[in-house]
Amino acid sequence: QVQLQESGGGSVESGGSLRLSCRAYGTFYNGYCLAWFRQAPGKEREGVAARHSDGPINYADSVEGRFTISQDDAKTALSLQMNSLKPEDTAMYYCAAASRRQLCGFSPDEYTFWGQGTQVTVSS
Description:
Largest sheet: 7 strands, mixed
Structural class: mainly beta
Mean pLDDT: 94
Distance between the termini: 40 Å
Helix content: under 10%
Number of helices: 0
Order of helices and strands: EEEEEEEEEEE
Strand content: over 45%
């Protein structure tokens, strides 16, 4: 079983930065995906960034060039560095994981394990 725990959310002004962290507990099989999703009130959950265990990384167009996903060497923590934040980035951010995947997509249905979420609020 896998457990995910996010931290690092908060409130920031437009143009500011935040760094989210996700601690992963459990066993991942080869070929897994770790990803960040977000969900704003009244909107569907959307993928933000995803990283495959073999290295490939995907970003949503809306965050490309502003957000950076990374994993520590011990493979136990996933981070999301968010720069140049905009009010439209305001949402609950979730860490997600999926095992035995060849590609990391942005459909929530692809992911089995989820964290409890951490709120990010960007004021204008």
